[in-house]
Amino acid sequence: MFPIFGLMAIGFGSARLRLIEEAGVRGLVLFVFNFSIPALLFDSMAAMAFPPDMEWGFLIAFYLASLTVYGLGAGVGRVGFGRPLDHQAIFGMGAAFSNLVLMGLPIVLTAFGPEGTLPMLLIIGFHSAIFMPLTVALIQTKRGGDGSLGPRVAGIFADVLRNPIILGIMAGFLVNRLGMPIWIGIASIVDFLAAAAVPCALFAMGASIATYPLRGDVPPAVVLTTLKLVVHPLLVWVIAVPLLGLEGLAVSVAVVMASMPSAVNVYLFGARYDAAPGIAARTVLLTTVCSILTVSIVLAIVGP
């Protein structure tokens, strides 16, 4: 875990000391999301050997737990802090929407190696497609009346399908299933881009959270941090192991992915819709800092 969080710390310190400008951070994030990580996911999926006895129940465990925690987060916003429905949606997203790409991907690859790639890719593939439209639907339900809910949700689905990360997974799957050969020149370019994914993603994550405020309305962020880092992975394990009777590497990957901090998208949605943006920012920052300890504990328990 030291090199992973060490790279994040270097990114965080560089941004705080203004060794890299905000525009540079944004450019690096765009490079990671639009080029480097899609290349890594394409390369991994294209070369993947799908086991004939794959146990798919880990996906049920992950997403059933995630939706439950989303509901708990929204309920905390309503009952505990008296927030309206649009704010509740951001509370739910903060509790359940994991940072699967910038943190989950490098941590799983480092901890589990190539064997953890397939369950990781399957979890990433459904993540945005479930939670982004759900959050927009709740926000628009609160602010509705103009008949725009359907087009907004449909637009989110279209954005998800155009997402370079999703496209990388889908293209790699297509190449894999069709057995298409890849010219060595193209393969080399993909390999170069993929090699930059993990270090650039971790540096960009650290630099991105450097500007998030911690002062202000902290109690909601503390509650959401507890839901995200403790309740979420624990619930995935409970559903997968005692309830569904699952075991194996895929379950461990699902638990580790659930232990990831809240994704930057939580703040972006809060800011985009002006729904509890301060709480969203503090939740992203607090979960990321606390995950140094909690993710290490989770890996010590369920890791290889």
Helical stretch count?
A: 14
Q: Indicate the overall shape.
A: globular
What is the beta-strand fraction?
Answer: under 5%
Characterize the main sheet. none
Mean pLDDT: 86
Tally of extended strands?
A: 0
Number of domains: 1
* Unreliable parts: none
Spell out the blueprint of helices and strands.
Layout: H1 2-16, H2 22-46, H3 57-80, H4 85-96, H5 100-112, H6 117-143, H7 149-162, H8 164-178, H9 184-195, H10 197-208, H11 218-243, H12 249-258, H13 264-272, H14 277-302
Short description:
79% of the residues lie in helices and 0% in strands.
What do these coordinates show?
- The protein has 304 residues and is an all-alpha fold.
- It has one domain (2-302): Na+/H+ antiporter like fold (Up-down Bundle).
- The chain has 14 helices and no strands.
- The chain has helices spanning 2-16, 22-46, 57-80, 85-96, 100-112, 117-143, 149-162, 164-178, 184-195, 197-208, 218-243, 249-258, 264-272, 277-302.
- The radius of gyration is 19 Å and the shape is globular.
- It starts with a helix and ends with a helix.
- The mean pLDDT is 86.
Question: Which tags fit this structure?
Answer:
globular, 304 residues, Na+/H+ antiporter like fold
